[in-house]
Write a structure and sequence with these properties.
about 140 residues; mainly beta; eleven-stranded parallel beta sheet; six-stranded parallel beta sheet; about 60% strand
Length: about 140
């Protein structure tokens, strides 16, 4: 699936959710602006999601990997004014961020015990109530 050059606003649910009950599914999200939703982009059961050049604003989660095996990669994007900017919410979930900005979130990044959080070490965090992450998940700086 591919979503490009799109604006998603004011939904009562998830902006883009990538999930399947059998096998795997992938999605590419590029130049998308998502605001005022529960979660901007979610990679759930069987999901492998790539987000680039996008903005996730004013949600519960900017990006979310919500299932064991779910993978979320984010590049050149902004997560701002969310409860959690980037969230690997369960064991086995993976989020990878590179060259992205996390601004004015309550928590910049959250990683559950047993999850993986990979940083390109070129992300920018500013004005978040808490930087988050830490010892609960595995944090790798590359």
């Amino acid at each position: 699936m591919s979503v490009k050059d799109t604006r998603i606003n004011n939904l009562g649910g998830v902006g883009i959710r990538v999930a399947t009950t059998v096998g795997g599914v992938s999605a590419a999200v590029d130049h998308v602006n998502i605001s005022r939703v529960t979660t901007g982009v979610e990679s759930a059961a069987g999901g492998n999601t790539s987000v680039s050049n996008s903005i996730m604003f004013a949600g519960s989660n900017g990006v979310l990997a919500s299932a064991n095996g779910a993978v979320m990669t984010v590049a050149n994007s902004v997560m701002s004014s969310n409860n959690v900017g980037a969230n690997a919410s369960v064991s086995g979930a993976t989020i990878a961020l590179t060259n992205s900005d996390l601004f004015a979130n309550n928590t910049a990044v959250s990683a559950a015990v047993g999850s993986n959080f990979i940083s390109g070490a070129n992300n920018k965090l500013f004005g978040n109530t808490s930087p988050g992450a830490g010892v609960s998940g595995t944090m790798i700086n590359e």
